[in-house]
Amino acid sequence: METGEQGVLKAIWGVLRTPVAPEHRGDLAFGWLILGLFFLQVFTGILLSLYFQPSPPLVAESVQYIMRDVDWGWLVRGVHHWTSHAMLAVCALHLLRAVVTGSYRGAGTPNWYAGTLVMAVIVVATYTGELLTWDQDAYWRLSGVLERIESFGDIGAFVAGAVRGGEEVNATTLSRTYSAHSLLLPWLAWVLLVANLWFLGRRLGARRGGAR
């Protein structure tokens, strides 16, 4: 019986060795570009995490240390910042292409859902990254967002309370925001990207089998 890991590896190998029809090469190019940007985000994020201090008294100081004293720190932070926005733009173009070409219908529906979820995760990851400066603007923006989330009944109140970590935005909120940005959201994006690849591998495999 095939294990989940073997199934994923089989799907990856199937995508790599299966000839791609001309009408799907654009989608594949977008997919590889998103994956490359994702790995660049992870790499630069790991480098930044070596110096960033997710504690209110130390946030501004650690950011300044990265920008002024760490060799090439300003460049790493800049690449990390702009790569996140580039991923948003590429994902938006990818989804727009799927709508225009109609590839979101039929066999492409699972890829459409996975891609939409990837876009949502990247939006949240980009937003939480902007909040990690923990200045007055970030503080009030997060407070406003949590108040709006809290207005969505019991579920909204639970989510806002879980993010806030108390009655008001404080050091615990920063810690949880940083954990979500650096741990939860990257893993969630990776799982969705692998799922997208899995669905694509099954589609290409089915097409190859039907062509025999």
Total domains, how many?
1
Rg from alpha-carbon coordinates? 20 Å
The CATH topology label is: Cytochrome Bc1 Complex, Chain C
Q: What is the string of SSEs from the N terminus onward?
A: HHHHHHHH
Q: Quickly give the CATH architecture.
A: Up-down Bundle
The structure class reads mainly alpha
The strand count comes to: 0
The percentage helix is over 70%
Summarize the structure.
By secondary structure, the protein is mainly α. 81% of the residues lie in helices and 0% in strands. It contains 8 helices and no strands.
Description:
With 212 residues, this protein is mainly α. It has one domain: Cytochrome Bc1 Complex, Chain C (Up-down Bundle), CATH 1.20.810. The chain has eight helices and no strands. It starts with a helix and ends with a helix. The mean pLDDT is 84.
